[in-house]
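Page 47, continued from p. 46.
Same chain as before, 136 aa.
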Amino acid sequence: MTLIVQQPSKLVQHLSKRERQIMDVLYRDGRATAAEVRARMPKAPSDSAVRTMLGILEAKGHVRHERDGIRYVYLPTVKPQAARRSAVKYLLDTFFDGSAARGMTALLELRGGELDDADLTRLRRMIDEARKKGRQ
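Result:
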């Protein structure tokens, strides 16, 4: 599977709730027909609505399609990791003035009780590495 790599910076901010649901299916499965996307969506809209939204996502550059006989198979154009980074950057810029520290603080306050020892160790390690890089 070949992914077309786009600039992810503007990807997240232009997706409706339904478009994000479609992208979730495509990221999870890697590729899917409109019928497969619809079958995996919560409270799915009509077939024609899913097809229309896939066309909109394609026009926006989020997905592309390949022909498989008479069917179109849809694929995301951006790697999931790049889309996640774009989503986090958008969230930080929108709600935390671009501050990773403020975003992390909010996440820790929200999920602090759910972090196990392995998570906390990994976070400490990442913070230590960031400190070392900052001193160089």
